[in-house]
Amino acid sequence: MKRVACFVALLLAAACSTTAPPVAASKPGSIDMKEPRRMVGTENNVRVDAEIYGEDMVQGSSLSIKYDVTNQRSSPILIADLLPETTYDPDTRMVTVNIGSEIPGEEFLPRLISIPSGERRSFHAGAHINIHMPLNASTSPRPRGLQLRVNFLGDSAPFVKLIDIPEKAVRDRELAAELFAKWVDKNETVTTNALPMRWQGPRPSGIEDDPATSQPSRRRRPG
Description:
There is one protein chain. The protein has helices at 2-15, 173-186, and strands at residues 23-24, 38-43, 46-52, 56-58, 62-71, 77-80, 85-89, 94-99, 108-110, 112-115, 120-128, 145-153, 169-171, 187-191, 195-196, 198-200. By secondary structure, the protein is mainly β. The strands form five sheets. A five-stranded antiparallel beta sheet has the order 1-11-5-3-2, with no helix packed on it. A hairpin with a 4-residue loop joins strand 7 and strand 8.
């Protein structure tokens, strides 16, 4: 099922005009490190700094995000050039924007963007907000925050045929079958801190918002 989903995502990457896949910026260091509403995550010797444009999550709209990925490892890392995937956890009321989260389909393989050791690369992307939640569920208050999760491949050797290729994706059934298990095994993640956001969309009946999270925080995060 996951492999079918990747095939659909790849087709959308080529045809969708309302939600953009990650695009590398011409200059690194695009994030304002003094911005109070900045998201930061460091795991597995990879750092992510991100900014969200705006303070509202609007159901059915696209949220613009820019982010820097810094590779603090001694070897390159790879990020799949795919449309961001947005998920929602009703228990934490958190929306997660997943970057590069898909694995190869049965035939199609995405382009991989390489970040060499010690270097930083800047990206911008659009995340489509479409949260499925019951309108009359007393246990499902509306979303209150957002975080970014970047997936990357820590071992570039098995994926050299896909690194920085000119195409968005290539069709190769044999290579897809060969790389499927390796992709799953080599995938690693970095998750940022959560950023308070205002939700603009359907509201479950009988639910009151938590006053502490109804307004985004303006406190400055340490750099």
